[in-house]
């Protein structure tokens, strides 16, 4: 099952690459094709002629000219805020689906080697004993099937434990990533505030700020507020994560509660909340259902054994010990000690064995409990995958909308180049006409007949 745990890690890592598209660093974003870059527009202002200047000095054209007063980021703040919200929901849905799919791989059903088939083989082995109660070989097959069944249940419990550890490690890694991004945003807030106060261009810093906000939204479902000076404040679960230049540490309690500065946060979102829900709800729930399977198996079989007699005519004892998936074991080692008879005295009566072979159809038995586990898991996985697919489509739509307004459009740039080219050609034509007129006046005026 190691591939299941590495698959979970790889799937979550792939989600990060898919969502962020870039690693935010302290370097300015200069490549227009890099995700996170927002196109800019030069703002032009008219400049009139300067009065009171002697004619021998060059000044602006009497009709005026233009100057560049600054550059504007062509993003839509409302779309950016919506994108952060959808990314937070998407991070949660995708992570939840990934965790549940990893659980599903641990229970390979339907399968010829799964627990359902092993339970069926165990009950069928009792039918052989019922047909021939004195056959030690048939009784030994029962013990072999019981040992194989308990081993598989133990292994399933162990696999769930390892998956839980893997998810816990992912949650811990996510908190480190969140705190790193929060600290980077706090430092960037200071840089933006200083640049704004000094009148410097903050567009590249704003690009980095938005990328960090999107990353925090993906990881935590964080809510962001852009301040007047361009800095950003971030809250997670109603608690402040970043305020101005201060970043509050985020952590997980021993019970996997999200803490911000040591204070329990409300329901958040993003990848971290998906992992936390897996640790606190989904994985313990499936472990409890698997324990119910083990408990039902031990209870029903041991109860039947207690009402029967072994091959020597002695009262039967328990076949299984333990009541959880991790502790379930087979305690009978001698096949003659299996209680197959319903009457004392060593009679070759197989009534108990026959009843045992029919326990698979019991509504309160291990098979029913296991069918309930598999059915619940299948429903949960299907619902999670559907929700993840819908949310991914919504997120992609918002990303495309944001890109259409903030991204570089090659069609628009080509149109602008053609416009400038035509304007240049028109200006050149004016100059050519003036030159031809001056040539005619200078070189041909007064030369009649030429």
Write a concise synopsis of the structure shown.
This protein has 450 residues and is an alpha+beta fold. It is built from 9 helices and 11 strands.
Name the descriptors.
four-stranded antiparallel β-sheet; 2 domains; 59% helix; alpha+beta; elongated; 9 helices; single chain; 450 residues
Describe this structure in words.
The chain has 450 residues and is of the alpha+beta class. The chain has two domains: 349 residues, no CATH class; 35 residues. It is 59% helix and 10% strand. It is built from nine helices and eleven strands. The strands form four sheets. It has a four-stranded antiparallel sheet with strand order 3-4-5-6. Strand 4 and strand 5 form a beta hairpin.
Number of domains: 2
| Average pLDDT rating | 87
Q: What Rg is obtained from the alpha carbons, in whole angstroms?
A: 37 Å
- Overall structural class, as computed from helix and strand content, comes to alpha+beta
Q: Low-confidence parts lasting 5 or more residues at pLDDT below 50?
A: 17-34
Which SSEs are present, and which pair or pack?
Blueprint (H helix, E strand, L loop, with lengths): L1 H19 L19 E8 L17 E9 L3 H30 L8 H17 L4 H62 L5 H18 L2 E4 L5 E5 L2 E5 L2 E2 L2 E3 L5 E3 L2 E2 L5 H37 L13 E2 L7 E2 L20 H7 L8 H41 L3 H34 L7
Antiparallel strand pairs: 1-2, 3-4, 4-5, 5-6, 7-8, 8-9, 10-11
